[in-house]
Amino acid sequence: MTAATLKYADWVQGIRDGRSYVSDGLSHLVSFSVGDHRLGTRGKSGEASRLDIAKPNKQVIRCQVAAMLPEKQTELGKQIRNRRLDIKPYWHLERARVGQSRNVPVEIIINGQAVERQEIPADGAVHNLEFEVDIERSSWVAVRVLPSMHSNPIFVHVAEEPIRASKKSAKWCKEAVDVCWGKKRGLIRPEEIGAAKEAYDSARATYTKIAEVAFED
Fold first, then answer.
1. Are both 129 and 172 inside the same structural domain?
2. Which three-class secondary structure state does DSSP give residue 88?
């Protein structure tokens, strides 16, 4: 599709299909594919960003990434990199700078975990990267430059099995519900406490059910 034929409705559909990424504006994802399946495209299932494979195997992941930093880190850049992650700006490419170089890491994420990494110079050019990763189970796969850019995922289904959460993550979410309830129940009006407890119990049950079918990690 050329700029002359680009239509707003097509752009909106691309967003719906997941053909996008989030960024601080200093790093960008130009393209991303697993195997020959590109982010946001539809496979045999008809679902956007879904790749079906028959069995666990290695997949080639390709992406084009660009980033831009000053060749030499400025004083402001040093300040930003040394700030705690809970102090603004939370997302900034300076936080990704490798040592005193101009390089930043591009990582492949599978089910929330970084499994491969390559560095690129943040020189404003588009860099072509290729990774080979083992897909052992149905998984979501993404690209990131932490904490500057993160792609939407491509969902890889192995033997038509659903993508499961990690057991550790599910248990963490359930414990977070317990902590939140412990902090807030004393602040809830008596006439609303019953409905609130019901909602929290439902959340606990949901995460318990997810943990029962989740993979061990």
1. no
2. coil
75 within some domain: yes
Length of the chain: 217
Structural domain for 153, as ranges? 8-158
Residue 215: other Cβ atoms inside 10 A: 16
Judge whether 154 lies within some domain.
Answer: yes
pLDDT tens digit string along 99-129?
A: 999 999 999 999 999 999 999 999 999 999 9
At position 203, the amino acid (one-letter code) is: A
Domain count, the chain: 2
Integer Cα distance of 151 and 19 in angstroms: 9
CA dihedral 144, 148, 152, 156 (to 10 degrees): 10
How far apart (Å, rounded) are the C-alpha atoms in residues 145 and 121?
12
Q: How far from the centroid of its chain's Cα atoms is residue 107's Cα?
A: 10
Main-chain phi, psi angles of 208, to 5 degrees: -65, -45
Helical segments of 72-148, H only: 75-82
Does a structural domain hold residue 52? yes
What are the residue ranges of helices labelled H in 65-128? 75-82
Residue by residue, DSSP assigns 53-71 as ESSSEEEEEEEEEEEE--S
Q: How far is CA 11 from the centre of its chain?
A: 21
pTM beyond 0.70, yes or no? yes
Query: Residue 50 in contact with residue 112, Cβ under 8 Å?
Result: no
| Measured distance CA(199)–CA(88) in Å, rounded | 33
CB 62 within 8 A of CB 126: no
